[in-house]
Amino acid sequence: MMFSLVNSRYPSMKPAEIPMLRLIIPFVTGIVIAVSFSIPWWILLFAIIVILFILAGFSFLPPSSRYKYNWISGFFLFLLFVAGGILRTEAAKQVRQKNQHLLQADFIEGVVTDFPVERTKTYRCRVKVSTYHEKDKFQKPAQAYILLYLYKGDNMSCLIPGQRIWINSRITSIPYYHNPGEFNYRRFMLDQGVYGQVFAYKNQWGIVKGEKQVTLTGLAAGIRHSIVEKLKESGFNDRELAVAAALMAGERSLLDPQTKQVFSQSGAMHVLAISGLHVGILYYILYTLLAFLERSKYGRILRITVVILVIWTYALVTGLSPSVVRASAMFSFFLFGDLIRQKSNSMNILASSAFLILLIHPFLIRSAGFQLSYLAVTGIIIFYHPVRMWGITGFIVWDKIWSLIAVSLAAQIGTAPLSIFYFHQFPVWFVFTNLLVIPLVTLIIYGFILWIITIPIAGLAGIMTTVLKFLISLLLKSVTLIQTLPVSVIPGLYPQPLMVLFLYGLIASAFLFLIYRRALSFLIVQGALLGMAVIILTDLSSPTRYFTVFNIPRKSVIGFTGGNKSVIFDLSSPRLSDAEMSYYLGLSAQTGKSFFITDWFTFTLQSFPAGLPDGFFIKKGFFCIADIKGYFFDSCRPPLLRHLNECPELNYVVFSNNRWWNLPALLDCISCRNVILDATVPGYAARHINRICREAGINVYDVKQRGAFMVAI
User: Fold this and answer.
1) Do residues 585 and 613 make contact, with C-beta atoms less than 8 angstroms apart?
2) Statement: the pTM of the whole predicted model exceeds 0.85
3) Which among 279, 375, 373 has a CA at the least distance from the CA of 328?
4) Shortest CA distance to 424 belongs to which of 181, 141, 67, 103?
5) Are 6 and 407 spatial neighbours (Cβ–Cβ below 8 Å)?
6) How far apart are CA 14 and CA 252, in angstroms?
7) Is 603 within 8 Å of 595 (Cβ atoms)?
8) Are 655 and 639 in contact (CB under 8 A)?
9) Where are the alpha helices (DSSP H) in 63-131?
10) What's the confidence (pLDDT) of residue 27?
11) How confident is the model at residue 348 (pLDDT cuts 50, 70, 90)?
12) Which of 383, 552, 582, 699 has a C-alpha 20 to 30 A away from that of 281?
């Protein structure tokens, strides 16, 4: 991934040699502030004018005074770039707010940007909106996309990238169910410029007459599609095809959940995403092959220009993921510095690429891929050389192996805290994985380039296909073997955000202390350790307890947590799949933290598994945890309330399904303060229940309308 980084000398950390680092820090600070809060434009404008006025005043001071008070001008320059980050993000917010009017459109025209992807009941493709009709007039959005879902059975063969289409169906926002731990897919897509989704039947969409619109994204999608089709024709089995398409074309839609899980738990998930590793290999091959151009007068310019063009073409073809954009920008800066014969500082180039990307797309700051990509490279830049020097022995074979280990360790140091925060697990054998996987992936990419070259020659193409099949099969067997090793992954890790910040503070200050031996760094290390200890002790002394009714479409799921344990009751039919648990709950059956129980009516206190939260009790639909008492009224079963000797006083009744006419009888038998409608209650039943409860003076919470119900107990 980092040929230029790991083979260069240790980069200087002197402030004078990394000016972009001093600019990117306040700029990112401003973006984070603007993303988290709304700043009125007049306050921002006033602040910028005041800062510029103060900085201009410093220019009239004599040189001796300017030098003496240089820190003050530096502080206001810092504030100016903070304001610049806020201003750029607020401008992006204004565009986003304007495009929200798409959700009121009743007719749109747009251009298909990719090939339809098959899903369970529909095909999905992305459409760039050209015009939309709202309030009796046509309007043009600013760079807005929607997701188009077409039901199976419709004619899909005409939908190809560049095709202009019309859609006469209401656009809806992408759903977000507000479950604790749920991935916010709505915000994720909004950050990519996707503002909504539309489901259209065959009479609600059609082709606009005229020529196709040729776009770069359409051409890139066509190339990706052609590569995948060629791979299919070459006889790869389904699993090999999915891995090959992900490695070679950035097409991950073919990967099944089991393959993703194997790569994730073995610590090799990063190789399935087109990243700096792929760009670095391409850069190294091209730069080496074009070395002969240096002999001519303008060969140096031609060599560097060709490499930059090919790198960005590859980035476009593979989908412009954050890691590919970062790597492409970095290598472009490296090459430009080489062209003008200027010495390049790796950290300064990294900061320059981040500044450029965030200036264009500030909301990328929230992308996990963007964050992890830059943290991985930062870790390599900072920690690779110190870690490598610790293990160098002078024995060539070992030194080569240790260099690869050092790169893996350095990247892991940079990404581990944030990776654990996002994915709640830690792959134990990541070093062993990278020792096997990175050389294999490198060979696969070399083989893929030769395969592309030899496609017109049937015999050679067949040989290269056989080689690629063998290498991909070996890759799958390697990651599967590592996943089956004892303690291959540590699951169930849920650090608090402050803990992540303290871990990075600890890493940074420990590095500064080890390299520069400064007392201040040692004090920062001690402060970080103290902060982590306070967070851990606070968390242990006051364990969180929650009662949750989840909002999962057409599912009846309730959760209890106590300490570091949770109990998830899945009363749905069919039950939640592993993919649904991961998406809606942020959990998996392998977390080691949760009990998944499919029917609590069959359990008594004595038949429950050991290790449940303290103070937990449930029997025949009644539940009690801490001071919360409630009853789960599954209207598919007859209530057992006729056996009660007295009228119980309950905090919550959770109502499921649609037999709302049984509710009055239930309310006659109990004393209840709140009724919660789970996600299986249809709209008409919810209206009747609201009326009944309003007459009885009972509060109603409908999770389908308001998101998951969650209360601390």
Assistant:
1) no
2) no
3) 279
4) 181
5) yes
6) 41
7) no
8) no
9) 63-68, 70-99
10) 93
11) confident
12) 383
* Beta carbons within 10 angstroms of residue 363's beta carbon: 20
Return the residue matching tokens 């910040």. Answer: 501
Task: Enumerate the β-bridge partners of residue 561.
Answer: 546, 566
Comparing 236 with 147, which gets the higher pLDDT? 147
pLDDT of residue 636: 52
Which of 9-23, 88-102, 512-526, 624-638 has the largest mean confidence?
88-102
**Over 374-385, what HEC string results?**
HHHHHHHHHHHH
CA–CA separation, 565 and 615 (whole Å): 12
CA–CA distance, 545 with 370 (Å, rounded to integer) = 34
Task: Say what the pLDDT of residue 589 is.
Answer: 40
Residue with tokens 């392998």: 590
| pLDDT 10s digits, 176-234 | 898 887 888 899 899 888 999 999 888 888 888 776 777 777 777 777 888 888 888 87
The C-alpha R_g of the chain, in whole angstroms, comes to 29
Rounded CA separation 142/95 (Å): 7
Q: Is-contact 385 365, C-beta < 8 A?
A: no
Q: Which residues pair with 165 in a beta bridge?
A: 110, 207
What tokens does 220 get? Answer: 């890139």
H-state helical runs in 250-290: 257-265, 276-289
Are the C-beta atoms of residues 355 and 308 closer than 8 Å to each other?
A: no
For residue 630, list its beta bridge partners: 623, 652
Helix (H, G, I), strand (E, B) or coil at 267: coil
Residue type at position 12: S
CA angle 209, 123, 216 (to 5 degrees): 55
Q: Please report, in angstroms and rounded to a whole number, the separation of the first and last CA atoms in the chain.
A: 49
* Diameter of the chain measured on Cα atoms: 100
Task: For residue 202, count other CB atoms closer than 10 A to its CB.
Answer: 11
What pLDDT, in 10s, does the model give residues 361-414? Answer: 999 898 888 888 888 888 888 888 888 888 887 788 888 888 888 888 888 888
What stretches of 391-508 adopt beta strand conformation (E)?
A: 426-427, 489-490
Element at 475 (helix H, strand E)? helix 458-483
Q: Which of 98, 79, 97, 73 is nearest to 33 (CA)?
A: 79
Give the C-alpha separation, 484 to 482, whole Å: 5
CA 56 to chain centroid, in Å, comes to 42
How far is residue 494's CA from residue 482's CA, in Å, rounded to a whole number? 24
Tell me: pLDDT of 88 over 80: yes
Using the structure block, give the residue that is written with the tokens 């005041």. Answer: 50
Nearest to 3 by CA among 307, 352, 305, 449: 307
| Residue 57: DSSP 8-state | H
**Over residues 21-36, mean pLDDT:** 90
